[in-house]
Write a structure and sequence with these properties.
alpha/beta, 244 residues, Rossmann fold, 12 strands, 6 helices, eight-stranded mixed beta sheet, disordered C terminus
Length: 244
């Protein structure tokens, strides 16, 4: 994917498979073909102004930002329209109790809200009054959808990442993303994360032999994501025409 020299807009001659694209997600989404994405799974900023508890030792020369994008909620209708156009069917979107209603109202305008998954972090979050131990995952579809495991609970038990190991203030466990991707796609399918952050979704795709497209507006996080992808052990299998 390249930028037009004059307009600065993204132009695409073919899908940017297995790439982390540094740019505004709406601009990039507008370049993707209709019904081209097998699965969208993403953890957008909720606009609740979280900041990291501790700078990590890894990538110590890169400033780790917080979740401070308060403009996302106003852009939700545009994002939902783009998701509906490019997605073949299934979308997973992380949110929390403070933003659930806004995400639900935006997505129900175009999608069928199929479920509310609960990620139990197994450790308390920040706060003093009934400290939160969970986040929500909105599951939306264009048509019908059934997970591969027919008896799975909608409560997903995965321990949160220790603060000293975080590369992103909102970083999710790879195993959690692997579960969502594996339950909803097949090997060789294409997964999109338009708020890829430190690259967890892309890492999970690599481990599961899925193709991915990651979009991230921060150059710093793009560097982190690319570094993580380079450090994944190579496999004998291939995906997307290249060695994993």
């Amino acid at each position: 994917m390249d930028r037009d020299a004059e307009s600065g807009e993204f132009k695409v001659s073919e899908l940017p498979i297995n790439q982390i694209i540094c740019g505004d997600c709406i601009q990039v989404l507008n370049t993707l073909p209709d019904n081209s994405i097998d699965l969208i799974v993403t953890d957008p900023p909720y606009g609740i102004n979280l900041t990291p508890q501790r700078q990590t030792s890894a990538f110590k020369d890169i400033k780790i930002a917080g979740d401070t994008n308060n403009n996302l909620l106003t852009m939700l209708p545009t994002i939902v329209d783009a998701f509906y156009r490019i997605a073949k069917n299934v979308v997973y979107v992380f949110c929390n109790w403070q933003s659930w209603d806004k995400f639900y109202c935006a997505f129900e305008q175009r999608f069928k809200i199929l479920n509310c998954l609960v990620w139990n972090k197994q450790q308390f979050g920040l706060g003093w009054n009934f400290r939160p131990i969970h986040e929500f995952i909105l599951l939306a579809t264009k048509t019908t959808f059934t997970t591969k495991s027919h008896n799975r609970s909608n409560v997903l038990e995965f321990q949160r990442i220790a603060p000293q190991q975080l590369l992103h203030v909102a970083q999710k466990p790879v195993e959690l993303l692997e579960l969502l991707i594996e339950e909803s796609t097949n090997e060789g399918d294409l997964v999109l994360d338009p708020f890829v952050g430190s690259g967890t979704t892309a890492v999970a795709c690599r481990l599961l032999n899925r193709d991915y497209i990651g979009i991230e507006i921060s150059e710093e996080y793009c560097k982190i994501a690319e570094a993580r992808l380079k450090n994944i052990p190579q496999r004998l299998e291939t995906f997307g025409g290249a060695t994993a």
